[in-house]
Design a protein that fits this description.
The chain is an alpha/beta fold. It contains 26 helices and 28 strands. The structure holds ligand MGD (2 copies), iron/sulfur cluster (SF4) and molybdenum atom. One of its GO terms (molecular function) is oxidoreductase activity.
Length: 725
């Protein structure tokens, strides 16, 4: 027997759980949580434990593919792939300019952290600004909210010190966002300290079941509820005056703007009880060290920026920011040391600083380039038209308005996709780059530091934890696979372009240049990504379980006497939008009528990550069910497991209904990232349902980012016609 035990971190979501992998004759056979590793207490989810079956998937690509004239694919060697791509990029740039080459960066880089760095540098080197990501169809309010409100230099209060955590439209037990290290354990520890958990979610989620208070509102009413909480804090003397006087402007204007949002008004509008809203406000007022996090729920339901902004205002009104002498959340370990001070960072431009897109009205924001513009940038002829796209993501399943996505991807001269299998999106590509799977790639935790540095407070570590370790497996025998970064390096090499290391949106200013003669290995790239790190990378590599590096622990320092920055509680654009909320007829806005009587909401399953290649057999149902309240099912005459037709004003899909007693009535919860489209005949029982047939870029979009309505979406649900009747 050649059984070997190896240690690494799981990279199937951003939680990065430490795991122990059993390797039998060069194949991974078993994964369990590494109980001896710090912070996680051995936690893993079923996706982590199923990693061997993802690596061993029979349909894994063993070599890259090239599309033929007739639409079929033939294998292509890495060598030829690089040569052909370099030539085609050269021709496109010569003919159409650098802007014709675009890239989309998403979940794939969790497994391949060097990819984002080199992709960004590649675009910079050819002179193209066309770098897109999922940020503007995710939670753009996270970064834009900080621009509008200002940021707290000292950061958030660490979970282990909180006496309250309020999560609005997020489900960390499944998603890990906000509590990435064993979320259940973190919640229980907080409650043991008598800390309170408040959940606002139309569904009684796995997280809501652990909460002290759960508000179960009508989807899309988060701005109303958050404004109602501000109203109560102001009215009932719940504002931390000392904190606000020293650190913020605009309290009077904000107070006036929320006048309309009385508990009675909010309760009637959001479909909750005024007493429950009072209870939440009271808990906020009693807490000294709380935090409020916004998940994807409010963001997808339109007005995500306003919800994010109001959540930041609530944190400031309560002084829920790390104070002098407290330990800092998200200290750097693999990035250069940074300091934390108990003082504001003034607001900065949220828009108006970049060039508007060629088509439509969107523009760059702190959330990056607006994805909303990309399909039209591809489809609209003229100078600057996008002709080539490097895609790290499952666009066909994850981008709004599926039809338009397919139309745009088909219209490209060159679509290059990185993938493990021939996914629905890969089927549209000219070249599919067969990539190594995670155990075949060295692991490093730096990505989460980059993400938290950029203003996303949902990932990373409140302790100075880091991990870096070698690849555990060789790629399958006879395969010819690449790591995602290698394609950018090798194509750049052929085009004589210099590349450097740029850690996306992190504050890092050290940008080492790559040797373009001799290809580095992945570990050497990691060394460069961690240039100037607080703890030397080799020191981190010595700890095969991951480690908490005490030397990197940071305390929040005192305010700089020269600091004059103030947080803004009364951003003019946000207060204008709040006035619109107060003025409108919520029924009209919601778009419910006798035909479209349900609201569709997003919600992640524990055992699937976005469009990631799924482990065979991992899902309880092999598809993503459309969850409904059992009484709603009875009313329309369907039973669990029945096929239903879901229609929105933009499209229709078939789905399989499933009951969930924890859902609010008239709400349907359906996860994205499924469906085998482009084929409309796709069987929802086999491949699941692609929810983005129901969304449209034109539907109630945010004017700067272009993010459309992806939640609180009016739909009709009817039993699917039975064949032959
Ligand atoms: N209707 C609706 N749409 C949504 C959402 C929603 O809630 N509702 N959520 C949105 C959100 S928040 C996000 S972040 C996006 C996510 O959706 P995407 O932006 O598409 O990103 P991922 O699904 O994370 O990307 C995973 C894909 O990357 C590719 N890939 C490239 N390299 C690798 C690799 O090394 N390993 C693996 N495993 N895959 C690789 C594979 O095709 C894989 O399927 O979807 C968005 N779309
Ligand atoms: N298992 C798993 N983990 C993941 C992912 C995954 O696909 N699977 N994806 C990763 C990604 S890309 C992201 S962005 C994060 C997202 O992390 P989360 O935001 O925590 O994602 P969800 O678990 O979908 O939680 C969203 C919640 O919002 C609720 N909701 C829906 N509409 C509304 C509304 O109008 N108002 C309110 N208040 N709530 C609403 C839903 O019922 C759901 O419980 O998760 C990450 N982690
Ligand atoms: S939560 Fe699951 S998928 Fe995410 S890192 Fe941990 S084991 Fe992997
Ligand atoms: Mo996301």
């Amino acid at each position: 027997m050649t059984l070997k035990q190896a240690r690494t971190i799981c990279r199937s979501c951003n939680a990065f759980c430490p795991i122990q992998v059993t390797i039998d004759q060069a194949r991974a056979t078993r994964v369990i949580g590494n109980r001896a590793a710090p912070l996680y207490k051995g936690y893993t989810c079923p996706k982590g434990r199923a990693l061997p079956s993802v690596h061993n998937r029979p349909d894994r690509l063993k070599s890259s593919l090239k599309r033929q004239e007739d639409g079929s694919f033939i294998p292509i060697s890495s060598e030829d792939l690089v040569g052909e791509l370099a030539e085609r990029i050269r021709v496109l740039i010569d003919r159409h300019g650098p802007r014709s080459v675009a890239a989309y960066l998403s979940g794939g880089v969790i497994e391949q952290p060097a990819a984002s760095t080199l992709m960004i540098s590649f675009l910079e080197a050819i002179g193209s600004p066309m770098l897109f990501s999922a940020s503007t169809i995710d939670q753009p309010g996270m970064t834009i909210g900080y621009a509008l409100h200002g940021r707290w230099h000292g950061g958030r209060i660490r979970p282990q010190e909180r006496d309250l955590f309020m999560i609005v439209g997020g489900n960390p037990i499944n998603s890990k966002q906000y509590l990435p290290q064993n979320p259940g354990m973190q919640i229980k520890a907080m409650r043991k300290r008598r800390g309170k958990l408040i959940v606002i979610d139309p569904r009684r989620t796995e997280t809501a079941r652990l909460a002290d208070i759960h508000l179960q509102p009508i989807p899309g009413e988060d701005p109303t509820i958050l404004a109602g909480l501000v109203h109560l804090l102001v009215r009932e003397d719940g504002v931390d005056r000392a904190f606000v006087d020293t650190n913020a402007n605009g309290l009077a204007a904000l107070s006036a703007a929320v006048e309309r949002f009385t508990p009675e008004y909010v309760a009637a509008r959001a479909g909750i009880s005024a007493a429950d809203l009072h209870a939440v406000a009271k808990a906020l007022m009693q807490a000294k060290r709380g935090d409020i996090g916004l998940g994807t729920g409010p963001s997808m339901a339109t007005r995500g920026l306003l919800s994010s902004y109001l959540a930041l205002c609530l944190n400031t009104l309560r002084g829920f920011w790390a104070g002098e002498g407290q330990q800092a959340m998200h200290p750097s370990v693999l990035l250069p040391e940074r300091e934390f001070r108990a003082q504001p960072i003034a607001p900065y431009p949220a828009w108006g600083f970049g060039k508007k897109m060629r088509v439509g009205n969107c523009e760059p924001t702190p959330a990056g380039m607006p994805l909303a513009a990309l399909p039209d940038e591809i489809l609209t002829p003229g100078a600057g038209q996008v002709k080539a796209l490097f895609l790290h993501g499952g666009a066909v399943q994850s981008w709004p308005q599926h039809d338009k996505t397919v139309e745009a991807l088909r219209a490209l001269d060159l679509l290059v996709i990185h993938d493990l299998v021939l996914s629905p999106t890969a089927k549209l590509a000219d070249y599919v780059i067969a990539t190594k799977a995670q155990f075949e790639i060295p692991a490093i935790s730096v990505l989460n530091e980059i993400i938290s540095n950029s203003g996303h407070s949902g990932y990373g570590w409140a302790e100075p934890f880091a991990y870096c370790g070698p690849a555990l497996l060789e790629p399958p025998e006879g395969s010819d696979l690449l790591e995602a970064w290698q394609i950018y390096y090798r194509v750049a090499q052929r085009l004589n372009l210099p590349l450097k290391i740029t850690n996306w949106r992190s504050a890092q200013k050290v940008e080492p240049e790559l040797d373009m003669q001799h290809e580095p290995n992945t570990s050497q790239i990691y060394d460069m990504m961690c240039a100037g790190s607080a703890i030397p990378l080799d020191e981190v590599r010595r700890h095969s379980y991951g480690h908490v590096f005490e030397a990197a622990r940071k305390q929040v320092l005192s305010r700089d006497p020269a600091c004059t920055a103030r947080l803004d509680l009364a951003n003019a654009d946000m207060l204008r939008e709040l006035a619109n909320v107060a003025r409108e007829d919520p029924e009209v806005r919601r778009g419910i009528d006798t035909e479209f009587a349900f609201l569709l909401i997003p919600g992640r399953l524990q055992n699937a990550t976005n469009t990631f290649a799924k482990a065979p057999g991992i899902l309880k149902w092999s598809y993503n069910p459309a969850f409904m309240h059992p009484r709603d099912m009875a009313e329309i005459g369907v039973s669990p497991g029945d096929e239903v037709l879901i229609r929105s004003r933009h499209g229709q899909v078939r789905a399989i209904a499933e009951k969930d007693e924890g859902l609010r009535r008239k709400v349907v919860s359906l996860m994205h990232g499924f469906g085998s489209s482009p084929s409309p005949q796709a069987d929802p029982r086999i491949d699941g349902t692609n929810v983005n047939h129901l969304t449209s870029w034109q539907d109630d979009f945010e004017e700067h980012t272009g993010m459309p309505r992806m939640g609180a979406l009016p739909i009709s649900v009817t039993p699917a016609a039975v064949a032959g009747t």
